[in-house]
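Notes from hallway chat w/ T.B., transcribed later so I don't forget. T.B. wanted the structure written out for a chain they're using in a teaching module, and asked if we could keep both sequence and structure tokens in one place. Agreed to drop them here.
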Amino acid sequence: MTISTIGLDLAKNWFQVHGVDAAGKVIIRRRLRRGEVLAYFQSIEPCLVGMEACATAHHWARELTALGHQVKLMPPVYVKAYVKRNKNDAADAEAICEAVTRPTMRFVPVKDVDQQSILMLHRARNLLVRQRTMLVNALRAHMAEFGITAAQGLAHVEELVAVIDNEQSPLPELARSILRMVVAQLKDTMARTHEIELQLAKWHRQSKVSQLLATIPGVGIMGASAIAATVTDPTLFRSGREFAAWLGMTPKQNSSGGKERLGRTSKRGDKYIRCLLVAGAVAILRHTRNRTTKDAAWVRGLLARKPAKVAAMALANKTARIVWAVMARGEAYRSKDVIGLAA
């Protein structure tokens, strides 16, 4: 019998295969070692292969596609509903095999190696920024133990560094030696962060989509490059609102019996991109008083009615819709289109 659909449950060392024919009859259930996966799929006829989208799924999707198979990735949360009773590798593979054939299933585009590399730069930068924050907080706490403080903000950390370098400061020599190690680690972290930002800026200048997205207020190079590398096909979303919902910027619903109940922001989507857009919205709010555009007037009216954080999330939602419109149309942002695109 010919296998028409396979559900492949990925893991570190053992991979579970569940294959059915065109009528849905189970043809094969087996476990494969990591080194046996490609040899097995090379030995069978090309078919539809479903996998849950995860860190390694894009690599395996590219490898199986090269062998002639049609590979589709699905969000794990959408596959969970098809798991029957207890959860195990065999049940997961069976659920994947069933879910991939559903006509209403939503799929995740397969990323190429360049897109994964750019997103890896973003994750590495995010890690270094967190480490930088940890080092700054540790430096401030240690200096405060000796009664030495500085104003908030990364720019004022140099004041603490100057005190550490000053041999006449009232710091014990043993404490000074440890603090110098912390400062050295902080400077190295900041240098590596800057190096990654230069690589991202270089890629941004070579990407047409990223350059178009950077024309939108509140997006910037970091947000533009992250979105361009993550969203490979904007036509997968029917509208800007669907794109904003994918990012987790729309209210969570708990509606029943014809009654609409909207809660807080769902936060179900890409956390990193959502944080970048919200940070960009906060930056716009700081300068909105000095702007005379239509969108600035809209923001000022929103601030008059809502708290600043609520206004920032609303503006980030609006920015997300504009991002989708710019990607779908392939045109740069134009201020006069703000009201229309956000509708």
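Follow-up for T.B.: Residues 210 and 225 are 5 Å apart (CA to CA). Might be a good example for the class.
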